[in-house]
């Protein structure tokens, strides 16, 4: 691998730009990120499964997953940090405020999105195509519904 993963170099040949395909960018392979969603947090039903929203569910983290190099590694850390802030800090704090104010958690997905996410101006990470956020009132957690792999 050549300079900052943008050039592909092999012995005896000139360096050339690395070409990425759309398949590389939309890969849904599992990620091994510290603090990410564990298999025990997966609920499968039909053609979809629900996982607890956490680090590694966002589109950007999946796009960068198969990349490496001196430029990409700090980007991976930045994306993971932004996801961790959104899920573990902002959402947790907003949920605690809501619980303290109302004495309960939101009772539906719509209440969660309006009273917690929109009201607190939380920017949830964009999800890959076919994935969507769902709030589970019984568990009191934000989930991601995605196609079964």
Major sheet:
4 strands, antiparallel
Strand content: 15-25%
Task: Give the total of domains.
Answer: 1
What would the principal axes of the Cα set say about the shape?
A: flat
Oligomer: single chain
Helical fraction equals 25-40%
Number of helices: 4
Structure summary, number of beta strands: 6
Mean pLDDT: 76
Terminal Cα separation, in Å? 30 Å
- Strand neighbour order, sheet with most strands: 3-4-6-5
Give helix and strand order, one letter per element, not per position: EEHEEHHHEE
Which structural class do you get from the secondary structure elements?
Answer: alpha+beta
- How large is the radius of gyration? 18 Å
Q: Are there runs of 5+ residues with pLDDT below 50, and where?
A: 1-40
Topology:
Layout: E1 7-8, E2 16-17, H1 22-25, E3 42-45, E4 48-52, H2 59-63, H3 72-102, H4 109-118, E5 132-136, E6 141-147
Antiparallel strand pairs: 1-2, 3-4, 4-6, 5-6
Describe this entry's structure for a reader.
The protein is an alpha+beta fold and 149 residues long. The protein has one domain (3-147). It contains four helices and six strands. Strands 3-4-6-5 form a four-stranded antiparallel sheet. Strands 1-2 form a two-stranded antiparallel sheet. Strand 3 and strand 4 (48-52) form a beta hairpin. It is flat, with a radius of gyration of 18 Å. Mean pLDDT is 76; it is low at 1-40.
């Amino acid at each position: 691998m050549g300079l900052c993963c943008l050039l592909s170099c092999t012995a005896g040949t000139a360096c050339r730009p690395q070409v990425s395909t759309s398949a590389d960018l939309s890969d849904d392979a599992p990620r091994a990120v510290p603090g990410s969603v564990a298999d025990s947090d997966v609920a499968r039903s039909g053609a979809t499964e629900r996982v607890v929203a956490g680090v590694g569910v966002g589109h950007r983290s999946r796009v960068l997953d198969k990349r490496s190099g001196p430029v990409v590694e700090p980007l991976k850390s930045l994306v993971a940090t932004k996801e961790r802030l959104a899920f573990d800090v902002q959402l947790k704090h907003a949920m605690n405020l809501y619980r303290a104010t109302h004495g309960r958690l939101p009772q539906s997905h719509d209440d969660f999105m309006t009273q917690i996410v929109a009201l607190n101006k939380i920017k949830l990470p964009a999800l890959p195509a076919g994935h969507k956020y769902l709030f589970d009132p019984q568990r009191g957690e934000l989930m991601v519904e995605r196609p079964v792999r």
